[in-house]
Amino acid sequence: MSEQNKQHLEERIAYLEDTIDKLGLEMNEMFNTIRSLQAQIRILAKRQEEGVSAVCPQSEETPPPHY
């Protein structure tokens, strides 16, 4: 194996290791996002089961401004 081929392989390995590290960080961020979204879904599901609505009843709505 020539010195040039060896250097090329070492560069390629370094590049691939860097890519793996970056992908690992990205996966970690996605995992945290998924956990956060799952927690939000649980909260929304619990509210729905309890009958809590994000929409006010018509009687509690403020009337729109008249122009």
What does this structure look like?
This protein has 67 residues and is an all-alpha fold. It has a domain of 43 residues. Helices cover 72% and strands 0% of the residues. The chain contains one helix and no strands. The model has no long low-confidence stretch (mean pLDDT 91).
Short description:
This protein is mostly helical.
Topology, pairings included?
Layout: H1 3-50
Keywords:
67 residues; elongated; mainly alpha
Residues in helices, as a percent range: over 70%
In terms of per-residue confidence, which ranges show pLDDT below 50 for 5 or more consecutive residues? Answer: none
Q: Please trace the helix and strand order, writing H or E for each element.
A: H
- The Cα radius of gyration reads 27 Å
Mean model confidence by pLDDT = 91
Structural class computed from helices and strand pairing: mainly alpha
Q: What general outline do the C-alpha atoms trace?
A: elongated
